[in-house]
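To: structure subgroup
Subject: Chain for Friday's discussion

All,

I'm putting the inputs and outputs inline so they're searchable in the archive.
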Amino acid sequence: MTRTATVARKTGETNIQITVDLDGTGKTNIQSGVGFFDHMLTAFGRHSLIDLSVRCEGDTWVDDHHTVEDVGIALGDALRQALGDKRGIRRFADVAVPLDEALVLAAVDISGRGELYWDVDIAPDKVGTFDTELGQEFFIGLARNAGLTLHLRKLCGTNAHHILEATFKACARALRVACESDPRVDDVPSTKGVL
């Protein structure tokens, strides 16, 4: 059984194509049109071991908001499709990832009830030209559309680049475990029988 998906999403603000392979090796091919976001998505693919291809043409002459938000939505949709009925997955995972002075905790439940719980205070408003508040927008779209209960919490850190990168890496590492097949589970890991 292959756990792959390709999603195309076109609006008046963005034109996106995303392909994921949950059982990959972390190969990435990212072209979002937003340099710092490409760096974050590359780290996300690499540390989740999800092969990830992202192509986005967005209205970045306005700002980066629509690109970042819509890629989160499309990636979440692709993850949901690739997970299928979620039979045999581990479902839960948590990890704390350091990046120099920054330390971020991610906890995920592939619950089918998509919601982000964000406690990542980032004092600097920008990393280069990238608005740091867009990190939260990406993860809202990802969690809601993938059906993840996703908690992200900054335990410490002052450098905005480090905090955001640790957040993407922590989410990626938690997803890597939660999406993995559990050899002891052959059905859906829920007492309800569905996720």
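Points worth raising on Friday:
The chain has a mean pLDDT of 97.
The two ends are 19 Å apart (CA to CA).

D.
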